[in-house]
Structures are given as structure tokens and as C-alpha cells.
Amino acid sequence: MRRLAGLLATALVAVLVPSTSMARTGECDTIQLRNYKVSVDVADKVYRIGQKAKIHITVSRKETGHAISGAKVAVMILSGRDKAVFGIDESDDRGRAFLKPYLSKRYTAPGPVRLLSYAYVQQANVAYCATVAEYGFKDQARAFRVKR
Predict the structure, then answer these.
(1) CA 82/CA 96 separation, integer angstroms
(2) What's the CATH number of domain 2-147, 2.60.40.1930, 3.30.420.200, 2.40.340.10, 3.30.1330.10?
(3) How large is the average pLDDT for residues 82-99?
(4) Are 103 and 51 contacting, i.e. CB atoms less than 8 angstroms apart?
């Protein structure tokens, strides 16, 4: 399960942030900074298969606590041995995003759920030929339970 979760988390990051830390992209560099705090609030502790999970995420800067608007926010819900559900949104002016991923029978197993949350903003500076990607990540082992 850990190996699958690690692979899925790597795939999620690869989809959202196309280049790695200080990787050469043509003639420019990409620098990744983990500057964001990702706070997650799940509306209920138990969901049934066929429902939509209600997940509130707040993205802020670690040092100052200022809200980050326009951040791409993604969650991955891992249940069972090889089941995963995704949700994607963008944070508003107060740094909040509200995701409602559908817990389908095909991709959700009953039992405890691991929730991986990720937020990022990518900014390009053409004059200096550098791209800065700031991000935050949170991993919750038992975020909620799923029942049949």
C-alpha cells in the first residue's frame, strides 16, 4: 500500500508540476519551493460509497499565514490496496478551495481512507529565464472512513 501511495503521489506531482527542482527546461531553470501550508477539513468522518466527499482546503504562506489565491489544489483519496479517487480545484481570494470528489464503487473500497492534498502556483520570469514553483503538501493517514 505504501509503495502504491508513493507512486500515485509521484504521479500526481508530475501531472501538476511538470519539471523537478532545478531541472533544465530548454534554456531556463525551474526552482521548486515548499512555502505553502495546506490545511484540510473533511466535512464528515464517515461517507458511503456513491456519495461525494466534502473536502475544504485552505492554502496559505507558511511564514506569514497570508492566503494564496489562484493556487491549483488537488486531492487524492486512497482506499483499499489499489483504489484512488481524485479531485482538482483552484483556491479563491481567501485561499480556500472546496472539492467534492465522487466516491464511486469502482474506485473506492470500504475502510479507512488516506488523503493526500497538494497545492501549487507556478510563476515564470522570462527576462531572467527562470520559473519558480511554490507548493505545499499534506498527507493524512486516516482522514475519514468509507462504508458500503
Answers:
(1) 29
(2) 2.60.40.1930
(3) 95
(4) yes
